[in-house]
Amino acid sequence: MAANQYDAIVIGAGHNGLIAASYLARAGKKVVILERREIVGGAAMTEEIFPGYRFTEFSYVVSLLRPEIIRDLELPKHGLKILPLPSTVTPMDNGDYLGSWDDHDLTRQEVYRHSPKDAEAYDEYSRVMARAAKAIKPIISMVPPDPSSLSPRDLLGMLKIGKYARSLSEKELYRIAKLVTQSSADLLDEWFEFDPLKGTKSASGIIGTFLGPRSPGTAYVLLHHYMGEIDGAFRAWGFAKNGTGGVSAAIASSARALGVEIRTNAAVEKVIVKGGRAAGVALQNGDELRAKIVLSAADPKRTFLQFVESKHLPDDFTQAIRSFRVRGSSGKVNIALNALPDFTCLPGEGALHRGAISISPSMDYIERAYDEAKYGQFAKNPYIDMIIPSMIDRDMAPPGHHVMSCFVQYAPYDIEGGWDDAKRDAFGETVISTIEKYAPNIRQCIVGKQVITPKDIERIAGITGGNIFHGELLLHQLFFFRPAPQWADFRTPLPGYYFGAAGAHPGGGVMGAAGKLAAEAVLKDQE
Amino acid sequence: MLELKRTPFHERTSRLSLPQNWRRWAGYIVVGSYDLVLDREYWAIRDAAALIDITPLMKYIIEGPDAAKLLHRMTPRDVLKMAVGQVFYTGWCDDDGKMLDDGTISRLSETKFRLTSAEPSLRWLSMNAVGMDVTVTEVTDQVGALSLQGPKSRTILNRCCSKSLDKLKFFRLMETKLAGVPVTISRTGYTGDLGYEIWMPAEKALTVWDALMEAGKDYGIVPCGILAMDMARVEAGLFMIDVDYTATNHAWIAGQKSTPFEMGLGWTVALDKPGYFVGRRALEREHKQGSAWKLVGLEIDWQGLEQLYASVGLPPQIPGMAMRGSLPVMYEGEQVGYASTSTWSPVLKKYIALAHVQRPYFEPGTRLHMEVTVEHHRLHAPGTVVKLPFYEPEWKKK
Q: Does residue A429 lie in a domain region?
């Protein structure tokens, strides 16, 4: 084959792109993957911003990485280890805390301490959510059919859904219908009374969305988090060795072993279209690469509005992509520390430091934070999800020193007046002073700090709008709506052009499903 | 913070346990066994007296004018007919008649009851108490509980209690003082032998423990862990939640659920009692149509077992404790059920099991086979369905 001639070109070496490329190579294709930056990983990346301190710059935990991908691509052989992240502690304003541990009895005892009623409800709630997740999982796991299409594949898909729905009991169907339409606040109010518990639970319903706990549809996002629970001990939930960059490095290593050519500093200018089909890619440096298959693992806006000239796509499709909501709502503050922060609620080094620490004292707290974001401000009292990677993986910082990853919501992409250095600094300061309320020594421990706004996510990781899921997890943007109606099966209106990233079904989170499913769509069409 | 709860007897039990084989029970840790082998503890249950820490049982005080009404509604037993000082054993169900839990109800006074359960029940009690004039208080941690089981248990209690227990009948309770500590003693247990359960304020737990150990010294009292009790309860035909049946709210699929009739608790279902109770309609239906499954006793033929082992040149090998692994139960080569707990019975000298068996194979006398693993090979040993309990000494109810 001539130089620059491939069977398939994958755009974007995030984890989905790497996975798609690997699966294509595994099927015998000659594959090149193009990355705009000098390093691979996309938003799943670890960087040494300060010498010796390694930051999980954007995405910081692995929750739903599909186990079959780990097996198929032999990722453990390529260095993947997912280390346990066993707890969540919510410090309270009165100096107490709410903990949830990786042991049922201990968690029950802890919730009981605050509310015996909630301790019992917690058990039942977990079981009900796990059963609902089990009921809905087969639907999530399939390639979404197009309900308006009469093609055999789509009809079969709809039939599968219908048949499956009929196998559920009425109780289960109603529960799912309710979960899909409710707000997480309504759902949690039905079950619990203790504010920090409700606040912490509701937080997982708003991560990556531009919604508050009282917005309808957020209950479904809570359910999403129980999907991993069903796999029980087999799930891949935790902190990846070497950070999420470790996941990308393992996949990249597997990809190379499978023969994938990885080109970095290779920003894509345009997808070349010939005879109404994708025929290759033109790089910004003027190089041209040829292939009958082009698979984009960039976000939907870039994939369809930037890489492809609009004349090659139907108007209603580009219109749907234009209105696809990708409002970034969160930022990160990554901190290098010369000592562990000491939390008032649990003084000294302890279990708290080995898990997540959640600043989520109540649902009202989070809803108020959302109110500010709605009107173009970052939250003055934000929800923060912290982990200390160096407590889980000692290779993340020099001995005795630490790195801390703080996920912060809300920080709107469209901040009033636009983001600038002063606003970024103010945002970082807000986060530090919020943590300071619970860990007064934090400021003295800081030796370096990286503040990331949605604008920075866009600039560095190349995600339009800076939305961590490449598009909000809204009901009208999920399943057969993701990224656009009739095009949720990883194919696009441009023949030969495929789409497989977080903006496709089943959505974000270092899951890899979209990359794998897109590669499978390519291979199916080749048959 | 990251420790499971310890019972108020921990100071004593932790020093006495030789193997330090802690077991988890409802968020507590309790002693698995005190000796390195179970024989002495087991035989104390059957021949002398065994002192068992049962504090982790969930305990609730249900009090108020509607207390009886609440339990009457929640359980299938006729609680309105219950006398003060009486104890009922019962299961309770969801509205599909599937078992949620099982435990005992003690009527402490006209308007005050104590309920024990295996699983947290506050939520279920509250849900059933809507509109009733009743308060429900959990007292699990506040009430220490000891079980004194075995033929000598009465003699020992009589030596240290202010009132004689001679008149206390089976499944009745009385208030008395033990070493000066006000206690409630019920003639109940989980061993199928003569035995009592002693309920006391947690802060006086050690006084009671010490007094019992002292009073029982010359009568063979032995502190006993839950592993030996597990063997005795199988002999007594008593089942355990989430081992021998799955609580309906823990079940992933319908097939995992059981009804009181299926569990052999038909005698607790008072279909003739007045008014609605949870699960009533489903249980009436099942009563009329008959049950599809039943928990039965299965006695393995020793000779048949011996033959299976003899074929590879071995004598029979039975573990010396109760086994909780599920074992397929067969009828002429087809699986018709499963054993949920099996054990060697030291008193009967038999290999016995509690087994869920499908209709019509659950009738006593039916010849079935149960899986045994002989030298890494799965074989089937012949056995017979028997009525429960396997073992019931005449002194149990005397």
A: yes
CB A318 within 8 A of CB A488: no
CA dist A478 → A16, A218, A221, A503, A516 (Å): 18, 13, 11, 9, 18
Contact: B126, A117; criterion CB under 8 Å: yes
- The reply to whether residue A105 touches residue B1, judged by beta carbons under 8 angstroms, is no
B367: phi then psi, degrees, rounded to nearest 5: -90, 120
**Whole domain around residue B213: which residue ranges?**
5-57+140-224
In a domain? residue A373: yes
Q: Beta A82-83 vs B350-358: how paired, if at all?
A: unpaired
Residues A281 and A221 in one domain: no
A231 three-state secondary structure = coil
Residue B26 domain-assigned (yes or no): yes
**Interacting residues of B30 by C-beta distance below 8 A, sequence separation 6+:** B7, B13, B22, B23, B24, B53, B55, B56, B225, B226
pLDDT digit string (tens) for A203-239? 988 988 899 999 998 998 888 777 765 555 555 578 9
From the list A101, A119, A123, the residue facing B2 with the nearest CB is A101
Same domain for B197 and B332, yes or no, is no
Q: Contact at 8 Å (CB) between A224 and A137?
A: no
What does DSSP assign to residue A41? B
Residues of B whose CB is below 8 A from A123: 120
Task: Name residue A489's amino acid.
Answer: D
Segment A419-433 shows an average pLDDT of 98
Q: Note whether A94 and A138 are same-domain residues.
A: no
Q: How many domains does chain A have?
A: 3
Instruction: List pLDDT tens digits, range B314-327.
Output: 999 988 899 998 99
Interface A–B counts its CB contacts (< 8 A) at: 36
Q: What are the φ and ψ backbone dihedral angles of B301, each rounded to 5 degrees?
A: -70, 120
**Domain containing A366: what range?**
86-115+330-410+416-452
- pLDDT over 90 percentage in chain A: 75
- What are the CA-CA distances from residue B181 to residues B8, B98, B112, B175, B189 (Å)? 15, 40, 21, 11, 21
Q: For B29, which residue in chain A has the nearest alpha carbon?
A: A105
A102 shares a domain with A14? no
Note whether residue B128 is domain-resident.
no
Give the bridge partners for A99, in sequence order.
A89
Q: Tokens at residue B54, please?
A: 């049962």
Note whether residue B96 is domain-resident. Answer: no
In a mutational test of the B interface, the residue from A89, A104, A112, A113 whose CB has the highest number of chain B CBs within 10 Å is A112
What is the nearest CA distance from A40 to chain B, expressed in angstroms? Answer: 40
pLDDT of residue A188 exceeding 70, the answer is yes
pLDDT at residue B98 in the model: 98
Determine whether the interchain pair A121/B24 forms a contact, defined as Cβ–Cβ distance below 8 Å: no
Name the token pair of B236.
């007594």
Residues 75 through 104 of chain A touching chain B, CB cutoff 8 Å: 99, 101
Residues 6 or more apart from B367 whose CB is under 8 A from it? B331, B382, B383, B384
CATH number, domain containing residue A91: 3.90.660
Chain B residues in contact with chain A using a Cβ-Cβ cutoff of 8 Å: 1-2, 4-5, 24, 26-27, 120-123, 126, 138, 249-250, 252
B290: left (phi over 0), alpha (psi -120 to 50) or beta: left
**Is B2–A105 a contact, with Cβ atoms under 8 angstroms apart?**
no
Per CB-CB distance under 8 Å, the chain B contacts of A108 are 27, 120
Q: Are B171 and B89 in contact (CB under 8 A)?
A: yes
CATH of the domain at A304: 3.50.50.60
What pLDDT is attached to residue A394?
95
Q: Is 0.95 topped by the overall pTM?
A: no
The residues, ordered by sequence, that sit 6+ positions from B251 with a Cβ below 8 Å of its Cβ are: B98, B257
CB contacts, 8 Å: A106 with chain B: 2, 4
- The helix, strand and coil proportions of chain B, stated in percent and rounded to the nearest 5, come to 25, 35, 40
